[in-house]
Amino acid sequence: MARAKKAIATAATDLSAPHTADALLSVRDLNVSFPTDDGLVTAVRNVSFDLRAGEALGIVGESGSGKSVSAMALMGLLPSTTRIAGSVMFDGKELIGMPDEDQRKIRGNGIAMIFQDPMTSLNPVHTVGKQLAEAYVAHNDVSKDAAREKVIETLKAVGIPQPDRRARQYPHEFSGGMRQRAMIAMAVINEPRLIIADEPTTALDVTVQAQILETLQALQENTDAAIMFITHDLGVVAAVTDRAQVMYAGTIVETGPVHEVLRTPRMPYTAGLIGSIPKTAGIGTRLTPIPGAPPSLINIAPGCTFAPRCYMAREVCNEAEPPLVDVNGPIHKSRCLFWEEVTRVDAVAAEIEEEAAAVEAQEAAAERDAFAASNEEVR
Ligand SMILES: Nc1ncnc2c1ncn2[C@@H]1O[C@H](COP(=O)(O)OP(=O)(O)O)[C@@H](O)[C@H]1O
Ligand code: SF4
Ligand SMILES: [Mg+2]
Fold this sequence. Notes:
Elements: E1 25-36, E2 39-51, E3 56-60, H1 67-75, E4 83-90, E5 93-94, H2 100-109, E6 111-114, H3 128-137, H4 144-157, H5 163-167, H6 176-188, E7 194-198, H7 206-223, E8 226-231, H8 234-240, E9 243-248, E10 251-257, H9 258-263, H10 268-275, E11 325-327, E12 332-334, H11 345-378
Parallel strand pairs: 3-8, 3-9, 6-7, 7-8
Antiparallel strand pairs: 1-2, 1-4, 4-5, 9-10, 10-12, 11-12
Helix pairs in contact: 3-4, 4-6, 6-7
Adenosine-5'-diphosphate (ADP) is lined by residues 34, 36, 41, 43, 61, 63-69, 79, 297.
């Protein structure tokens, strides 16, 4: 799936500016928390980023890091008790605090979301064609025939063979991969400027995943839409996006051009994610978790949230949350105080193995000595 990656402009990540004028989406200091019986859960903290038309951004992190909540905040899909602060400019309009009615309009044809489970957005009692047509006429004043034509064209564009026949079928008559394509068709039929795909391929087998990713890429290239691709899988991010944004405990801990982040990660957490991709792994291989668990999001302790799991942690890391600073130039940023010392975990793993082998050799030598000594005694 080779394709020319877009150049990433330096200004795209000038997060000190209130908003980047030519960004399609400009998020500043997004904070999201949920009042619960146990206390306030702070799911997203101080998230700022920009996304331009035609750009593909990969948001990556372990489960619970705030990826979906960030996306739902942009879509205006969080419960009404949710506390949301910050600013999200989309196509020149502020989304935070926007009246429901206007938000619904934007959800229809400005921003579209593709979810992990297609059955959450496909209605089992209507044919796929009928649902797609309804989504289209809700935002376009067109005849039935024109809507039908658009449905067939869209099914074809997402790689569904025999679109005419397929349009007359019900979701349960589709295979998993085809259902996912139908859902992508639903998301793109109104030609959204931004497509948010939240782990859209996780439940599919590797070959189908690759096909779906390719379909999304082709759609993006044809329409110049921006894509926000959410996944726990760095392999997927490397395959389909231009820029990677790594989240941990609700905040961005590293961001930069995807290949630079993979080659020279500047945050131990990212290095851990990379180190846990098996070398022979294909797209969609599950990560081996980094030892330890993410922190509680109620009363988040001061300091670096990754410190309890970090092999490089030291006293100063617990003092205050490190800022997101420029590393390797202004478009690659990290929240690690000691980013210059970060090595890829596979190098660290090799060191640990060497050390372990040395210790084992010492133990074997000691055992041999003890054995020889006991033989001496017997003699
Ligand atoms: N409605 C809610 N009420 C309380 N906590 C929530 C709610 N929705 C999400 N969370 C919590 O917010 C955190 C981030 O969740 P999420 O964004 O779904 O993570 P992920 O990165 O896996 O998509 C998790 O700890 C989750 O339990
Ligand atoms: S700031 Fe300290 S604890 Fe946090 S990632 Fe860097 S070295 Fe580890
Ligand atoms: Mg999620």
